[in-house]
Write a structure and sequence with these properties.
Two copies of one chain form a homodimer.
Chain A (H helix, E strand, L loop, with lengths): L3 E8 L3 E3 L18 H4 L2 H4 L13 H8 L2 E7 H4 L24 E5 L7 E2 L5 E5 L3 H12 L3 E6 L1 H9 L5 E7 L7 E2 L9 E10 L2 E9 L1
Parallel strand pairs in A: 1-7, 1-8, 3-4, 3-7, 4-6
Antiparallel strand pairs in A: 2-9, 5-6, 8-11, 10-11
Chain lengths: 213, 213
């Protein structure tokens, strides 16, 4: 059955981004370390237009993350362009002219904006009426395929709290960041989990959980 | 080589105890859930004087935790008796007449107290001059064997920050506590880690790390 899921890299102390995010450090200070295991993979490099790379135990995990995705949901920060109204000539986001999604992408924001069509099948839709609406729009757009939550942490938390997540994978990196954005913050025992899969790979361990209802 | 190590159960959101610890809930509200995977194991039941129990993928992990331990270090809270001076007729702690340690146990406290000898080879020594002293006393008592940090989180953090830990295992339980005692708090990138071992078991995943120097 089509599911709603997310796959997010975290430090061992539970941060999905480091402190003090900036243009220089979009993932916060030290945050880029959380993704180094992925940058080496052929399975990551190919869809980002890069040659070469490794095949290791993370490869099937990354392939599964990308397989069968029919729509993506992300927060405004992950789309880019800073907070507040979009302005006259709004920025098109971090993702360039050929974003790696190739599906509709629903961006949660407080500020309305016309859809933004990019090459390769990616269209950004801006959703101003909350997570339930974003869920329903993405669910409909995805059809028989899965909906992938791209992040950030606050969006994943809102979807978990609303009972909309079917499964998620934390890719735990052996790094302590000490501060930053906590991945599983503002949640509690009402989110009931079951271990689904564990994959140890070079520089990362992928922990997959199902949300029980 | 003899090592200093700890093995602590944590929730997926990183807590080693729940909120509001009390006599009724010594591990905080919900905290006992972090140990349910262990209570079912023959390898846990036998040293606690109970018959029966399961053998599963956690068994060798629990056996390794207990093997080759020559001395134990713990915090005052883990010993028991509440904070402050010991008083006239001090409490003997949570651990009963035959504690499961069978080695010298060094208890970090601000309040001096005579050593407390129990059955089965466990003697509690009360250390008032800090983690380095507790480390040296435990290291000497352990001889060729390992020193085990029994907890709590604050003691483990002090030992990690002081560069005294060789390896540790987090036994990650698929539960969100939402608040409580954070296991890896007050630490940062100066503690450098390497993944050492990953064991998926029923109701828990054991993640072992080495501290790099």
């Amino acid at each position: 059955m089509a599911s709603l899921r997310f796959d997010i890299a975290v430090s061992l102390d539970g941060f999905s981004a480091g402190p003090n995010p900036s243009e220089e450090h979009p993932l916060g200070e030290g945050g880029m370390q959380l993704h180094e295991w992925a940058f080496e993979l052929a399975a990551w490099r190919e869809p980002h237009g890069k040659d070469g790379g490794e095949v290791n135990a993370s490869t099937p995990v990354v392939e599964a993350m990308r397989a069968n995705v029919g729509a993506v949901v992300m927060g405004r920060e992950m789309f880019g362009g800073g907070p507040g109204p979009w302005g006259e000539d709004p920025w098109d986001g971090w993702w360039g002219d050929d974003p790696p999604f190739h599906t509709p992408v629903f961006v949660l924001t407080h500020h309305a904006r016309e859809p933004l069509q990019k090459d390769g099948g990616t269209t950004f839709h801006f959703v101003t009426d909350g997570v339930q609406s974003a869920f329903e729009q993405a669910r409909k757009a995805a059809g028989d395929h899965d909906v992938s939550l791209a992040g950030g942490a606050d969006v994943a938390q809102q979807f978990l709290a609303a009972g909309l997540v079917d499964e998620f994978t934390l890719s735990v990196v052996p790094v302590l960041l000490g501060s930053g954005t906590r991945m599983l913050d503002n949640l509690g025992a009402d989110v009931r989990l079951a271990q689904a899969d564990v994959v140890a790979a070079p520089g990362v361990t992928h922990l997959k959980y199902r949300v029980e209802r």
